[in-house]
Amino acid sequence: MPSDPVLPPEPASPTNPDIVAELLAILDLERLETDLFRGVSPQNGWKRVFGGQVVGQALVAATRTVPSARAPHSLHAYFLLGGDPSVPIVYEVERIRDGQSFTTRRVKAIQHGRAIFAMTASYQVTESGHAHQAAMPEAPPPESLPDTKSLLAKGVPGIPAAVAGYFGRPRPIELKPVDLRRYLEGGPQAPLCNVWLRAASTLPDDPAIHQAVLAYASDMTLLDATLIAHGRSVFDADIQSASLDHALWFHRPFRADDWLLYAQDSPNAAGARGFARGQIFSRDGTLVASVAQEGLIRPRSA
């Protein structure tokens, strides 16, 4: 969402016994009318709503108006205004099309009488056909990587405090960066970044829940990839960063509570905007989803 760093919300307390249950509650929207829903935000002190939360909630709203035999295969969204976490978000679903194979929905998120977010999502019945996929990049298995929370709690020399705090806090999505050297070494590097992620505890078996959780997680870390080539990060105080738009394609079934490799790269940055792409693989190498995002990476004035 505009005007704030692209960082996900944190639980109100590090002793929260089940932060995944809190995430599921946030994604479980209240139905106000046939195509009208209301969602809330965690009350954790953040000044803006995390963009991934709005993507996930909007997907839930759209999905609840679609027959269960049809699953989402893509969504395209724009962040219009920063969300206010102190008040509910109303999601208005428009039924654009119900075809024989595809269903299309448009969702508008509203706060204070204004649209803060807009999304179009497409759904399809299950079909068979030609299939191929990109290969998963080489990456060590998540079990071989240090537990980031424990590692950063002890302190890692050279890692900025904001980075340590981000990766060290409890959150509903576990993150294990494959390589932290960009934060240690500094300086421009190839704009590539791999992160293992998964829900922090077991999710219900409903595929719609796993899709919503992955939509939530897909906004984490992606914009930061646009700054690697410049030796910077969204954690730098003199960088104003925000998601501007977001696209997500679901390719194959997956579980969001199993480890997924989020392979990210950034082919372009210009005009104070950075463009990043992500491929999400299950640990057996299956490409389950793809992501694209453009975001603001504006240097702040002194």
Automatic annotation (TrEMBL):
Pfam families linked to this entry: 4HBT_3, Acyl_CoA_thio
* Gene3D superfamilies, alphabetized: Acyl-CoA thioesterase, double hotdog domain (2.40.160.210)
Q: What SUPFAM superfamilies is this protein classified in?
A: Thioesterase/thiol ester dehydrase-isomerase (SSF54637)
ATP-binding keyword on record? no
Could you list this entry's UniProt keywords, alphabetically sorted. Answer: Hydrolase
Q: Which InterPro entries match?
A: Acyl-CoA_hotdog, Acyl_CoA_thio, HotDog_dom_sf, TesB_ACOT8-like_N, TesB_C
Q: Please report the stretch or stretches of sequence annotated as the Acyl-CoA thioesterase 2 C-terminal domain.
A: 171-296
Q: Residue ranges of the Acyl-CoA thioesterase-like N-terminal HotDog domain?
A: 46-123
TM spans (from-to): none
Family membership noted in the UniProt record: Belongs to the C/M/P thioester hydrolase family.
Name of protein: Acyl-CoA thioesterase 2
Q: Which organism is it from?
A: Methylobacterium cerastii
Record gene name: tesB
